[in-house]
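Can you give me the bound-state structure? Components:
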Amino acid sequence: MALSRLSLRSNNPFLKPTATSLPPSTRRHVSTDTTPITIETAAPFTSHQCDAPSRSVSTSSAEILSFFRDMARMRRMEIAADSLYKAKMIRGFCHLYDGQEALAVGMEAAITRRDAIITSYRDHCTFLGRGGELVDAFSELMGRKRGCSDGKGGSMHFYKKDASFYGGHGIVGAQIPLGCGLAFAQKYSKEENVTFVLYGDGAANQGQLFEALNIAALWDLPAILVCENNHYGMGTATWRSAKSPAYFKRGDYVPGLKVDGMDVLAVKQACKFAKEHALKNGPIILEMDTYRYHGHSMSDPGSTYRTRDEVSGVRQVRDPIERVRKLLLSHDIATEKELKDMEKEVRKEVDDAVAQAKECPTPEASELFTNMYVKDCGVESFGADRKELKVTLP
Amino acid sequence: MSAIIHGAGAATALTTFNSKKLVAPCRTNLPARSKRCIVVAGSDDASKSFGSSSVLSVRRPQKLIANAVATKTDTSATTGHELLLFEALQEGLEEEMDRDPHVCVMGEDVGHYGGSYKVTKGLADKFGDLRVLDTPICENAFTGMGIGAAMTGLRPVIEGMNMGFLLLAFNQISNNCGMLHYTSGGQFTIPVVIRGPGGVGRQLGAEHSQRLESYFQSIPGIQMVACSTPYNAKGLMKAAIRSENPVILFEHVLLYNLKEKIPDDDYICNLEEAEMVRPGEHITILTYSRMRYHVMQAAKTLVNKGYDPEVIDIRSLKPFDLYTIGNSVKKTHRVLIVEECMRTGGIGASLTAAINENFHDYLDAPVMCLSSQDVPTPYAGTLEEWTVVQPAQIVTAVEQLCQ
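Here's the bound-state model for the whole set.
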């Protein structure tokens, strides 16, 4: 998927100037090189009740470059959302994903658009990863009609049905049974697809997780439960909320894998492994060790329960985009300047999308009542004086 | 496959009620009219029927009847087959499962055990374990699962062994089931049916005698219906399964053994429509589920005393069929609501508000609402009887209203 997208992008006008401005002595057609290369993940996998996958990840220059671009776009989008929120153009809750981009991008690299993803409220980047447009995302955040949910959902309710992205849920943990339902439907229809059910370290203490795990394991549902462990459930650190912070082991009879969630290649490898496992053996838990730079949401400064040194420390040592940048530079896939140019393009892309979204109209007043019910069987009966008794069965 | 829709009398309500003409294929009215004369004359023959069903108790009218008992129906002109209410539900479910492979059932003990009230008996053998799923005891999780499956296009029928257990799944029902169609901008439809028995049974205790319709009624995005006869049970079950909206179908523990003759052909009942049980002139009595039978019993007494109550089984608890109700109010100008729901915040409370808002000018007397007492249902039989509305209370209320 990432490869085909990149080959498309190699035709786009933004990249062409960059490529042609390079001196001919330096390498490549960086954007179209798809020969497989193997890279080792930085940290090993820890497994529970299963064999860990190998640390050697097969990828390609094109793919790694696409990782960089996608993550840069996600990072820029979240930062733009931050400013929009402070400018009061986005209201309510706004949960930002910056720092965790590797998860969304690595997962997409391992799966298809027929595999389903369902996540919690920190869904902007997952939506983007599933092929969502920046304009749709910003419009939804600002409550415009152009938004992916017609402006009626908001930050926590991004959905993209044609890309099997099932949202976008505000209640902590409630998406887990839904995700098992998606997996059940996949098994029922005998499709060879899986469902990735994402939840956080805070939601890992919800009873419904264990109920759903039991059901998924009992019926061998192709569900992959991914715990995005960013170490803080809003303001509560994991050591204060969980007796056993080894979330990948909590499945007990369900195998688990602990993955460095800031390493996009490790995420890709783990998701690929998990998909194969789930199709054969039923559910598996992936614990992604990741970190969020912002607070829980925009109303949380993020500094009352952790030190600024901790945040900047993680940013220096483990930042996913920096990692990929180092990889690209060390493997000679791109130059410093090219990457900076790419970031500039991405920034412009995001700014253009924001400007476009700001121009979009808000929903009409009549939209208040649309999509409450589906008009059904031709029956319309409502209100005291409007009723038609014509019923036609399908 | 062609099917017949049986309108529940709204078409007839439009015309003058002396008319014997039928505007739409309407099953319920004609038999009632011909029998009405016999009833007015004072016959208390228990086997005669009011309206479309007959579930009168065989006991003396004056004695306090705390439960409805099935009796043999009379033979009406239509051909059909006789069955009990739970069999009607099963038949509806089976026909829909035959018709559409996306329909599946999930709940506790619905498969191999056959369902705690035998509604799903035999289905697991016929359709297999994947379509009739025995779930572990985790209402929150399996309700959520059903909703998640519905997002992809399956049509699960989720059974709560007792409606009261669905309180554990309230988050899923309210937030996901009701809201997803709206918050996704119409991308996902949730064609689930959530069903189960509720209501006050025979000394089942407080936790197993709950009426959840009052808790669910404010959830935007769902539809609620309550069945009361084998005929409308099958019709509503089928309509609910075919509906693209989430529907909560309320059954009653004590009504499962009602017997009635239902048509052989394929029919559904309109989900948003009320059923005219007994047309009348003096007062409109609105009721649903088991209280319908208490009302009909009281109606016998009332008719003997010279009153002519119009009894409407509202069936659709959300949205209310204000059209049928409105036409009735415009005719009789007096309304009595008899329900088993709690007094505070119950269906009757909402219905009273809706009628007052919409039909205030047509009312000659304030809307009176008889509901269950605001207490947890006690175990002791006598106390339990007094928790719910009894026919004698209905008679008194009508007399009071019609002064």
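A couple of observations. Confidence is low (pLDDT under 50) at residues 1-75 of chain B. The radius of gyration of chain B is 20 Å.
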